What we know:
By secondary structure, the chain is α/β, with parallel strands linked by helices. The chain is built from seven helices and ten strands. Strand 9, helix 7 (194-202) and strand 10 (221-225) form a beta-alpha-beta unit. 2-phosphoglycolic acid binds at residues 36-38, 123-125.
Amino acid sequence: MNIIIEQTKEDASQKAYEIFCEAIENGAKVFGLATGSTPEMLYDKIIASDLDFSNAISVNLDEYVGLAGTHPHSYQYYMKDKLFKHKPFKECYVPNGLNDEATEVARYDQILEEHPIDLQLLGIGQNGHIAFNEPGTSFDSLTHKIKLTESTIQVNKRFFVNEDEMPHYAYSMGLASIMKAKKIILLAFGEEKAQAIKDLATVETADEAIPASILINHPDATIIVDAAAASLIK
Ligand code: PGA
């Protein structure tokens, strides 16, 4: 696992953008994509570029259970709004929050089986989660339904106009599925991520209490942080 510290979020997003460009030059066709505030600047750079994704496939990390893809707070809506409507992909997969658990888990695992991920983009939660794999999630997990922790609910409800509408369950790609990606980039910005980055940077053995720590066992994982997120590891 390689850690790159950039001064600003802008510099860190530029670095991530360069890794995207390099992966595309090397033939990457399937991109594991993430939502949240962290990837927005990277998506803006992709939109402003002449990179062509018309033959590419995207497979997203997670979705809130109970939200239709047309709901403005769903991750499917986020992806259309922040990326796909500006930069078309050939096929875009996001878990379907309206499907029952058995159907969705089987459907999404099949999609992942058919489309091995070349480049996986990740954010990190303040509690060390990646996708919605909350602390304690098995490192062997595939797609699953997960109850969001109180910490994640408190952090993410800022996105909801009516905070009580924030779902308490999500469908998430599992940690074993994330580890199958050929290459992984994790982005983290701001001092609120500093503790999670310290935990990740200093852990000696991957520990299910810190989901992101599984990345220390990945052969090609790069963590790109701004100075604020790196403030506890300097
Ligand atoms: P954020 O979320 O990008 O909105 O900080 C990241 C995450 O929770 O994984």
